[in-house]
Amino acid sequence: MCTLEKRGNIYILTLTGDDDHRLNPTLLDSITAAINRIRSEATSPSALITTAHGKFFSNGYDLAWAQSDPQRHIIMSSKLRSLVRDLISLPMPTIAAVTGHASAGGFILAQAHDYVLMRKDRGFMYMSELDIKLVVPDWFVKLLQNRIGSPAALRDLVLRAERVTAEAAVEKGIIYSAHNSAVKTVEAAVSLAEALVRRNWDGEVYGRNRKVLFGDVLLALDFDETVEDVAHANLGSSRL
């Protein structure tokens, strides 16, 4: 689940509950509902900060929930893609204050924000798919290509399953900044949000410009070949 706090024109969305913050439909629906509330009530200028309680920012898809039925993978993928689409179109700057590990889909959720700040005393970013024998969806890669300028850094994330600490992530251009603790990370995110709000940008223009910047990602979000292939294979098997 998540909570939503409003401080002036800054919204702070915090993932709560299960320490892993696995991306199952319950959590994804909760985040989406918070984003919809922000969209409906925010006025320009505003900003969003997403953070989390506990050891993890998010440990990715809830694979234990999904393992009993391939259709559940499709549901999770669809809901995460919809959430990322909502973040890309949100009419305000967005900041992820990563106060714990961010793995696989959790890393993607963080990278769907305009700025990623991370604590450096604990936690890492990690694309775990190679280690757990999963294929990375094309839309994951499109998003990472948009956010990470270094091909070598992208290679090491996807093809070496490198666990990247905050300081290394800054050096590689994966995140915006690193901070000494969870509290300092959130404080820095609030300071950045305040600075962005002071620019007094028109939120609708900001959101439309982000949609242009992420145009290839928005196209890729229409499809997830890694779950569609599983669905088709299971449909074919059921007809034999």
From TrEMBL:
Gene3D superfamilies: 2-enoyl-CoA Hydratase, Chain A, domain 1. The keyword Lipid metabolism applies. Its EC number is 5.3.3.8. It comes from the Eukaryota. InterPro entries: ClpP/crotonase-like_dom_sf, Enoyl-CoA_hydra/iso. It catalyses: a (3Z)-enoyl-CoA = a 4-saturated (2E)-enoyl-CoA; a (3E)-enoyl-CoA = a 4-saturated (2E)-enoyl-CoA. One of its GO terms (molecular function) is delta(3)-delta(2)-enoyl-CoA isomerase activity. GO terms for biological process: fatty acid beta-oxidation. Belongs to the enoyl-CoA hydratase/isomerase family. This is Delta(3)-Delta(2)-enoyl-CoA isomerase. It comes from Mikania micrantha.
